[in-house]
Design goal:
The strands form 3 sheets. Strands 1, 2, 3, 4, 6, 8, 9, 10 and 11 form a 9-stranded mixed sheet that branches. Strands 12-13-14-15 form a 4-stranded antiparallel sheet, with helices on one face. By secondary structure, the chain is of the alpha/beta class. It is built from 15 helices and 15 strands. It has one domain (6-390): Alkaline Phosphatase, subunit A.
């Protein structure tokens, strides 16, 4: 086992793929990620998730399956006992698996023992030792939202986090900090000589949009790129977006307010980059950085003001939602050409690459492809198309997210209500099942109960003009529809490796 690399899977929540220095965003403060792609890793500028919300995306990248392969299209259907999980595979193969962060992956009723040795939870003593007493009053730390009827009520915006009794500069005693510092402790005091897999699914930069100093003040507001404008009358766009926009009621916001919201989100990303740097420093101090494979990626993106929206959706696939950061540093001995690549990749390529690094043979059919040829610089081509999917068919109550509101009483108090209320209506097209096929130049979206979408990303990178009925792109539309059909044929099911007796 000694020749197997350690694995670090650093997985922030809801980080959009353009909020990074290494892709050329002038406002992004991500020095640690930027340094990695310059020195010993590869940044994938066009990496895409397979579903634009948390649980389905995580179920996908931890199995190598697309969401449709086993029906993972809802926040309340996680990986069941008979389904493969990369963490469990590594545990069975002799890895010490340490999980520090959110779940959104395995059912809580089954526990975590089958997937990891440690499901980390920082104690009060840990926070005291780190010099940052744990914050237990969430409302005090995160700030108050607007009142019902105000144009901040569904905005998720809070701004600067106000801290008192704060003894450790740059460290706030929340769950993310607890897991990051706990991972650093583990690295410096590893329990034995087994190879480690450290899984860090953090909460930031998921809304609410709030951040503390020094990160809040790092962002130069003048450098924040402009938002994608709202299409006139929402023409050609899916009904879900218009419905959410009307409910969030942010159309009266000035550009100054939007810039401040976006800058706060950028600050949250800067904080995560700093935390990532601390974990990398711990690996170096322990003398195991070179022999460790590092994966940094988000589960999906965030509107952050694009189209006048905040948060995310379950069945629309704008690049701000479906494109995510993805950085891979291979272990020593695996050829790498540090750079930023334009190769099209999917998050399901992550487990295939872990398998290639570790020599672990998967016990199931999956659809990821190892990234080694791209990492080495042998090729800049990986996939001809990437896919993302979501939504539901009519009558599919189990995919309406009903448990999300049953525990709330008055569901309208939830900041997610503008989206969830439409997901729970069964007489409109808003939550229709939909699938994206994106190539280098074009994006095609097939929708079950409303108009399809087609965008020429070369001419319209903000996806504002739906050209599905444009005769000039009819050949492109038909070609992408055929490509999608082939993809469904290839990935529609999986046959178990263990045959039954007859």
């Amino acid at each position: 086992m000694s020749d197997r690399p350690n694995i670090v899977i650093f997985n922030p929540d809801q980080w959009r793929g353009d909020t990074l220095g290494y892709v050329g965003n002038p406002a992004a403060v991500t020095p640690n990620l930027d340094r990695m792609v310059q020195s010993d890793g590869v940044g994938f500028a066009r990496a895409f998730c397979q579903n634009p919300v948390c649980t389905p995306s995580r179920c996908s990248f931890m199995t190598g399956w697309y969401p449709h392969t086993r029906g993972h299209r809802t926040m309340h259907y996680m990986l069941r006992q008979d389904e493969p999980v990369l963490l469990r595979t590594l545990k069975r193969q002799g890895y010490f698996v340490w999980w520090g962060g959110k779940n959104d992956l395995v059912p809580g009723q089954h526990g975590f023992e089958h997937c990891c040795h440690v499901k980390h939870r920082a104690t009060e003593a840990d926070f005291e030792r780190w010099g940052c007493p744990r914050w237990t009053n969430r409302e005090q730390a995160l700030g108050r939202r607007g009142k019902p009827g105000e144009d901040t009520y569904y905005s998720f915006y809070r701004g600067r986090m106000e801290l008192e009794h704060h003894d450790a500069p740059g460290i706030f005693g929340d769950g993310d900090w607890g897991h990051v510092l706990g991972a650093c402790d583990l690295i410096r005091n590893r329990p034995d000589d087994r190879p480690m897999c450290i899984y860090l699914p953090l909460g930031f930069p998921h809304p609410p949009y709030v951040c503390e100093d020094p990160y809040y003040s790092l962002i130069d507001r003048a450098k924040v790129p402009p938002r994608a404008a709202t299409p006139e009358g929402w023409a050609g766009k899916p009904a879900l977006l218009k419905g959410i926009a009307e409910m969030q009621a942010l159309d009266g916001w000035s550009e100054e307010r939007w810039t401040e919201l976006r800058a706060t989100y950028y600050a949250m990303c800067a904080r995560v980059d700093h935390q990532f740097g601390l974990v990398m420093d711990a690996l170096r101090e322990a003398g195991i950085y070179d022999e460790t494979a590092v994966f940094f990626f988000a589960d999906h993106g965030d509107f952050t003001g694009d189209y006048g929206l905040v948060e995310k959706t379950q069945n629309t696939f704008e690049d701000c939602l479906s494109r995510v950061p993805f950085v891979v540093k291979p272990p020593a001995g695996v050829p790498v050409m540090p750079r930023v690549t334009e190769a099209l990749v999917e998050l399901i390529d992550m487990p295939a690459t872990v398998e290639a690094f570790t020599g672990v043979a998967p016990g199931h059919t999956h659809f990821g492809r190892p990234l080694l040829p791209v990492l080495s610089g042998e090729t800049e081509e990986h996939r001809d198309a990437v896919f993302c999917e979501g939504g539901r068919i009519r009558g599919e109550r189990q995919a309406m997210e009903l448990p999300s509101t049953q525990r709330l009483g008055d569901a309208s108090v939830s900041e997610y209500w503008p989206r969830i209320r439409l997901q729970q209506q069964d007489d409109g097209p808003e939550h229709t099942k939909a699938v994206m096929c994106r190539t280098d130049r074009y994006k095609y979206v097939r929708r079950l109960y409303e108009s399809d979408e087609l965008y020429d990303l070369g001419e319209d990178p903000q996806e504002r003009v739906n050209r599905i009925d444009d005769p000039a792109l009819a050949e492109v539309r038909d070609r992408l529809a055929e490509r999608m059909l082939t993809w469904f044929f290839e990935t529609g099911d999986v046959v178990p490796f263990d045959p039954d007796k007859r």
